[in-house]
Amino acid sequence: MADSPKMQTAYRFATSRSGAGELRVFVLYTTGELTQPALAEAGVLLRNLAVEITLLAVQIVPFPLPLEFPAVAPEFLKRRLRTIAGEMGSEVDVQLIFARDLYFAIEQVLPSHSLVVVAARKRWCPTAETKLARRLGRAGHSVALLAV
Questions:
Q1: What are the tens digits of pLDDT across the range 75-121?
Q2: CA quadruple 123, 128, 134, 140: dihedral sign
Q3: Could you list the residue range(s) of the whole structural domain that residue 98 is in?
Q4: Nearest-CA neighbor of 144 among 51, 81, 22?
């Protein structure tokens, strides 16, 4: 992963075992209460397929702070993500990225034409999660928007 002013630090605490010809699905962490149903749904839909699931979390670090020292302790975030991934019951890779810009970080991490699952609340107006899903779709990714 290339270092850039917007994104320098990436923590990966599960090794990626996905090789050529294997399918990988990315579940984007938005909030704990939205991500758990997204992971569960991805697991149900993909349980009979040879699919690797990656929980991708981007922690935004405001500009006064260096990326190496975010406002929230990395160990706390890691424990939280491990707990959410552990509730799924099957193996999930977890990626935690510290960045200045959410969209830039996601675009840098996701391979082109990725399969992405995003959960959003049912609302009459577009939520931040819905806007994120639309933007990823416009960028060429296949996005499943799960209404919670």
A1: 999 899 999 998 887 789 999 999 999 999 999 999 999 999 999 99
A2: negative
A3: 7-14+22-147
A4: 51
